[in-house]
Amino acid sequence: MAKVKEMTRVTESPPPVVIDYTREPIVVVDNLHVIYRVYGGGGGKGTAATALMRILRRQNRPQMKEVHAVRGVSFVAYRGDAIGVIGTNGSGKSTLLKAIAGLLPPARGAVYTQGRPSLLGVNAALMRDLSGERNIILGCLAMGLSPEETRAKYDEIVKFADLKPGFIHYPMSAYSSGMGARLRFAIAAARTHDVLLIDEALATGDAKFRKRSKAKINELRRDAGAVFLVAHNLDQVEETCNRVIWLDEGKIRMDGDPKEVIAAYNEAIGK
C-alpha cells in the first residue's frame, strides 16, 4: 500500500488525523462522504390508481431526497487494532463499515485497505433453508478455504458456535437469533482476515459466548490485520477494543482510548 499522507476532514473544527509512522497502516479512510438517495411519493393523496395516473400524466412526480450518512470521516487503522465504533442510532456506524467493506460507494473521498475486508453482520448471508452443517461448508468455501481446510475447521466451528444438540443438522430457519449469530461469528472467525468488520453480530450472544468471542477477536488481532466492532454494548466494546471511534451525525466526534471516549459519550447522552 502506498505511503500514507497527512489527511484532513471536511467537518466543523476537524481534529487532525494523527499518523503513527512506526506502525503498519491497514485501513485508510480519507475524507469519506456517503450519501443515500431516497425516492419519496411527493406527498400526494389518493388511491394507488390515482397516484399511478398522476405519474403517467407527469404530475406530482416522485421526489428524491439525499441522506448524508457519513460526512468527511478520516482516520487510519493499523495492523493489530481492534476498533470499536459507537454512536446513537442513525449516526452512520453501519454505513461506515459497509463503505470500508466496499459495499457502498463513496460520494466523495476514498477508502484504502490492505487485503480484503470481510463484513460480518446480523444479516450475514447464510441460507435459511439449509442446515447449519451445509452453511458451514458453503460459508468456508465462500471465504476462500479449500475443501480440506473446511473439513479441518468444521469441528472447531461447531464447538465454538455451541448450538443445542442436533441443531447443526436443522435448517437455519429453526435457529433462534442468538444461535444464528453465534454460528455466523464462528464461521467468520474460522479463517484469518485482513480486515474483519463485525456489525452487532455479538449483541445476541450470552455472557459465555461474549467471553469466547473476545478471546477469538484478540486472536484475530494477533494473527491478522484490523478488527472493527459496532455494538451498543459499551462494556463489550471497552473490554474488546484498544481504540474507539465515536460517530455523531456522520462525523467523528472523538477517536482514542476506549475508556475516555466511552465516558465522554455516556456524558453526552446523559447516561
TrEMBL record:
Keywords: ATP-binding, Nucleotide-binding, Transport. It comes from the Bacteria. Residues 50-271 form the ABC transporter domain. InterPro entries: AAA+_ATPase, ABC_transporter-like_ATP-bd, ABC_transpr_TagH-like, Bact_Polysacc_Export_ATP-bd, P-loop_NTPase. GO terms for molecular function: ABC-type transporter activity; ATP binding; ATP hydrolysis activity. Pfam families: ABC_tran (PF00005). The keyword Aminoacyl-tRNA synthetase does not apply. PROSITE patterns: ABC_TRANSPORTER_2 (PS50893). One of its GO terms (cellular component) is membrane. Belongs to the ABC transporter superfamily. This is ABC transporter related protein. It comes from Thermomonospora curvata (strain ATCC 19995 / DSM 43183 / JCM 3096 / KCTC 9072 / NBRC 15933 / NCIMB 10081 / Henssen B9).
